[in-house]
Amino acid sequence: PFHLLPFSYFFPCALRPVPCPFTFILTPHSSLLTPHPSPLTLFIFPFNLLPLSYFFPCALCPAPLSFPSPLTPHPSRFSFNLSPIFSPLTPLKYPMPSKNPHRIPILLLCCLILLTACAPNFTPPGSPGLSEPQLQETSFISYDGTELPLRSWLPPNEADTARFIFIAVHGFNDYSNFIKNSAHYFNKHQIAVYAYDQRGFGNAPVKGRWSSTEAMTQDLKTLIRLIAQKHPDQPIYLLGHSMGGAVVIQAMNGENHPDVAGAILVAPAVWARSTIPFYQNGGLWLVAHTIPWYRVTGKVLGRKPSDNIEMLKEQGRDPLVIKETRFDTIYGLQHLMDAAYKAADNYTLKTLVLYGDHDQIIPEKPVLDAFQRFPTDPAKQKQLIRYENGYHMLLRDLQAENVMKDIVAWIND
């Protein structure tokens, strides 16, 4: 059995129009099982307290259930409470159906029905036209009427003294506060900084749920137009970190986008499916279509996003940083990374790409490949800077000031 693999997907008894020919037996370990005569015995192991009633929605089963005498148990007498519907579990036995040549197609159809019911659940955009996009002090109204939180860091002598404007776009599970320390540094160099919480992150609506690539790119385009109206004389640069870099690439590819002076992409998330092993793609697809609601943490990966341990501890205490992520949200992120990777062929902005050699989150190969495919002419329109001691969170690493200096030098060039 795979970790978190939902066996109900393969045995959707709740939807099966014929009685199920299997005997289901729950046991903590297969070695504890006393064998039972049956055409098939399915062993289901503990799943980190997953609600087992999800796997056995027997309350919906169209065939009556029969409860035979319990098996002779191992001395441990391990049992589960499935849900309020059931008392501590005894084996659920379904009568054997008669031979039916149409059984396999019917079972496949039922699997497809269950697959549709458990498809990734993304949040739809609002209704365009309900309200006009507008810039407020601590938020902005996007193209579909959704209000997204907005933070700003302006130079000490009012915003009109700024020589440049940065619109910062945060990474996955992060929010607008990611740029706070860098913004103070940029302010000293007459750079005004705006950052917003993307849909599903920070204080934005429907926290923890994925919206869509289209909605996220339209949000960025809307904010660019609003900032340009407020600062018509200052060049606007986009600064995207990780997932934010993918949003920038996707929003700015082609010709139908607002005018900006350039972009800074910090460890852009362009880890497309075409660069990922097939078994990882298949595993993500499976869990996103069977248990999309289940949440996981990044601890199981054992990755180190930064060498700034105090900053990581601070993030762990920040309630606006998402710690547990739904499988369908990760699946949505994969769609965005696919789109950004493909969009590199039509991305023509003046661009600075920053990447740390110790990045354990986004692999080197897709980042370098996307950078090479940026069709800029002349070549000086794009630049790549690598940091020998850098990690994924370059703007918050211990050597973050070196990265900030390079950004300021690049826009002043």
Question: What labels would you give this structure?
Answer:
413 residues, alpha/beta, nine-stranded mixed beta sheet, three-stranded mixed beta sheet, 14 strands, 29% helix, 15% strand, globular, disordered N terminus
Describe the model:
Helix 5 crosses helix 6, helix 6 (243-252) packs across helix 9 and helix 7 crosses helix 9 (327-343). It contains 11 helices and 14 strands. Residues 1-94 have low confidence and may be disordered. The longest helix has 18 residues, at 213-230. Strand 13, helix 10 (364-373) and strand 14 form a beta-alpha-beta unit. It has a 9-stranded mixed sheet with strand order 4-5-6-8-7-9-10-13-14, with helices on both faces. Strands 2-1-3 form a 3-stranded mixed sheet, with no helix packed on it. The radius of gyration is 26 Å and the shape is globular. The protein has 413 residues and is α/β, with parallel strands linked by helices. The protein has helices spanning 7-10, 52-55, 103-117, 180-187, 213-230, 243-252, 278-290, 309-317, 327-343, 364-373, 400-412; strands at 23-26, 41-44, 92-93, 134-135, 139-141, 147-153, 164-169, 191-196, 236-241, 262-266, 295-296, 325-326, 351-356, 382-387. Helices cover 29% and strands 15% of the residues.
